[in-house]
Amino acid sequence: MSELRDLLRRAERDLQRGPRGAEHSDPARLWRELVELRERAAHVDDDTRLLGAARQLAERASDVATGPPVPTETLAGTIAAAVLAPSMHNSQPWRFAVGTGRVEVRLDLQRRLPVADPDDVAARIACGAAVHNLRLAFPVRLGRAAEVALLPDPADPTLLAVVRPGAARPAAPREQALHAAIARRHSNRYPFRDDVPVEPTLHATLTDAARTRGCWLDLVVEPATRQLLGELVTDADRVLRADPAYEQELSGWIRRDAGATDGIPGGAAGPRPEPGDPLPGRDYGGAPRRPDRGFEPAPLVAVLGGPGEHPADQLAVGEALQAVLLAATDGGLVASLYSQVLEVPEARSRLRRMAGRLGSPYLVLRIGYPSRPTFATPRRPVAEVVDLR
Ligand SMILES: Cc1cc2nc3c(=O)[nH]c(=O)nc-3n(C[C@H](O)[C@H](O)[C@H](O)COP(=O)(O)O)c2cc1C
């Protein structure tokens, strides 16, 4: 019932703010509907028809409160930013439905990783990162705030988010800078420079960026803790690599042909992992490292966590991840991700104890200044991932 109350409250707030757009709707009629639904809600305890009517009302009230309608094709232009989000093995587990005044972000069940990500946790993190890109693309490209509803329909768990254009407003300079970083951000799996530590002022920038809806980023600066974390990821990696099904799934995402639009191409694979690496990378079929090109001995390592294990928490972690990565890119930094711990429950429990935090750790990051550039990993064309409604 709290969802019903929330919807009615939201509808009231939007009707009070409007009307700023959606000339075709009639706010007076929506007010009457609101009063009527309130009446009915006061007398019934649980009624799915009532809930459905409240959802529809909230949606129409939100149309009234927001600015003039954005043409579907213009709205679809924001998807180019969404698809640049990171995803495990570059699996791009998303679809976008773009219709009148809304972008739906959906989990694409055809692109699951059944072995590495049986519960779609990593997929939801990737989609959360795509939602974060939309939050920036709306003000920058459309001149409109992004109004985001996460998991808006409990009956449809693949509908991860609905993003609508809100009030007209110019993008803040910080939003413009972070939006510009979307296309420059790439995973960099190579050793980073070991002659310059990460600028201390950036530490706070990164931890602040992660702070959204209960997420956190712990920077690991103690050498002993860093070593412990490295051992933990190494153990998790060893467990995974002993599983032939994991190896088979992983190798299925390695791409050798130049026209590939997903997966990991040779140019992005990074060096082949070697025993003794302080943090083991995934083996994406990269070339062996030159003996004088070792990993930096004291990298800036970080653990990204969220408030819990609910799908909404995983979307929040995705948003926080992308916020951290864009802040890093804007500050001249690059990052490598290590999610092996997410896939090995025992390793994750150890990491949870180690983090000594409320909530759940999800990903390990290595952050630093690049010793060599990496290139954009391909994406499927926007037309392939968008359904125009
Ligand atoms: C949830 C999640 C887990 C990831 N885990 C790893 C990982 O364990 N190792 C790795 O090298 N990259 C990992 N990545 C990075 C992806 O491989 C990368 O984002 C993808 O290949 C697209 O490349 P890009 O980041 O350069 O755009 C992960 C990304 C996400 C979102």
From TrEMBL:
One of its GO terms (molecular function) is oxidoreductase activity. InterPro entries: Nitroreductase-like, Nitroreductase/BluB. It comes from the Bacteria. Residues 254-292 are annotated as: Disordered. This is Nitroreductase.
